[in-house]
């Protein structure tokens, strides 16, 4: 064929470019080279939003039961025999309720309950006045509060002006029925009410520095079943059933004889986190004997603590 009849073939490279443009769309070219067109949203893989897992529901704490202190006072008074004079007070440290029985503001001789009053006073004066308290004095604390050693208490009474302790503690805690003994040196005749003694225990548990509080509680917790003088002090709040079942810390008191009566007391803290303070002061006829008097107070304590469950 002639020169004008020859068919010019298309180079394969050019054909490839045309095919690419036909498939992918226009290709932009800049002075730095071709730009690849962005992938359209329609052609992108879909995104799945991942939501955080919902936290598990936290159960509401059970409501605090109220009225338990009054229920315990009622149970104690109902259980007491007709010949027993009972001064009782129960404090609920969670709700703040202080229930006081019919004789809860009446004065009783403390017997060995005075030991806690004097030792609290000494510890407070050590902290606020710089009163010197030796390791030997701390040993006297342990002997007075645990095995209820009367000779240890007498030594503390003489050394630290025990006669002035009821007035000083009363002033600090606004006690209304606590007083020094009328007879010089007769620390067992310090007078106290059940209501005042519950306030004293609240002070120990809630207001004293942790070191002082722990010292007192550890000494009290070490109380053996038999006291230094041979008296069986496993009664009331320290009866085995109550002591083991309620994790009880208690100071006991016993004394004879005024107007033909025994003075027999049990007072302390019990329950989860020492929620309750229970104070039971009794005057009982001497004619019944100590075993029967202890049984009487243990029965009262059993009914009172059962009402706190």
Descriptive report:
- The chain has helices spanning 12-24, 68-79, 114-129, 135-145, 150-159, 165-173, 194-206, 210-221, 240-246, 290-306, and strands spanning 28-30, 33-35, 85-92, 98-100, 108-109, 191-192, 249-258, 261-270, 276-285.
- By secondary structure, it is an alpha+beta fold.
- The strands form three sheets. The chain has a five-stranded antiparallel β-sheet with strand order 4-3-9-8-7, with helices on both faces. The protein has a two-stranded antiparallel sheet with strand order 1-2. It has a two-stranded antiparallel sheet with strand order 5-6.
Distance between the termini: 120 Å
How is the biggest beta sheet arranged? 5 strands, antiparallel
Count of DSSP helices? 10
Compute the gyration radius: what is it? 41 Å
The strand order across the widest sheet is 4-3-9-8-7
Give the second-level CATH assignment, the architecture.
3-Layer(aba) Sandwich
Q: Going by CATH, what is the homologous superfamily?
A: DD-peptidase/beta-lactamase superfamily
Q: Which shape, going by the Cα principal axes?
A: globular
SSE order: HEEHEEEHHHHEHHHEEEH
Proportion of helical residues: 25-40%
Structural class: alpha+beta
**Care to count the β-strands?**
9
Low-pLDDT stretches are: 1-44
CATH class category = Alpha Beta
Q: Please, what is the average pLDDT?
A: 87
CATH third-tier fold name: Beta-lactamase
Number of domains: 1
Fraction of residues in β-strands: 15-25%
């Amino acid at each position: 064929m002639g020169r004008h009849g020859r068919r010019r073939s298309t180079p394969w490279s050019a054909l490839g470019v045309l095919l690419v443009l036909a498939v992918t769309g226009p290709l932009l070219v800049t002075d730095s080279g071709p730009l690849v067109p962005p992938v359209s949203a329609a052609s992108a893989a879909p995104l799945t939003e991942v939501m955080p897992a919902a936290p598990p529901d936290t159960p509401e704490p059970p409501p605090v039961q109220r009225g338990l202190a009054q229920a315990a006072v009622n149970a104690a008074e109902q259980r007491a025999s007709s010949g027993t004079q009972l001064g009782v007070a129960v404090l609920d440290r969670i709700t703040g309720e202080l229930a006081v029985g019919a004789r809860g503001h009446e004065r009783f001789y403390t017997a060995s309950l005075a030991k806690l009053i004097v030792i609290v006073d000494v510890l407070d004066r050590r902290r606020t006045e710089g009163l010197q308290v030796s390791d030997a004095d701390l040993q006297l604390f342990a002997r007075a509060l645990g095995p209820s050693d009367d000779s240890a208490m007498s030594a503390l009474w003489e050394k630290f002006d025990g006669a002035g302790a009821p007035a000083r503690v009363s002033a600090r805690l606004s006690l209304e029925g606590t007083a020094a003994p009328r007879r010089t040196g007769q620390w067992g005749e310090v007078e106290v009410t059940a209501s005042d003694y519950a306030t004293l225990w609240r002070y120990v548990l809630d207001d004293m520095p942790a070191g002082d509080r722990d010292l007192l509680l550890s000494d009290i917790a070490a109380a053996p079943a038999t006291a230094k003088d041979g008296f069986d002090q496993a009664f009331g709040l320290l009866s085995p059933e109550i002591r083991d079942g309620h994790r009880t810390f208690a100071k006991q008191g016993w004394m004879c004889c005024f107007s033909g009566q025994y003075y027999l007391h049990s007072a302390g803290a019990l329950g989860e986190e020492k929620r309750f303070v229970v104070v039971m002061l009794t005057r009982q006829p001497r004619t019944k004997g100590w075993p029967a008097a202890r049984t009487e107070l243990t029965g009262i304590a059993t009914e009172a603590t059962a009402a706190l469950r």
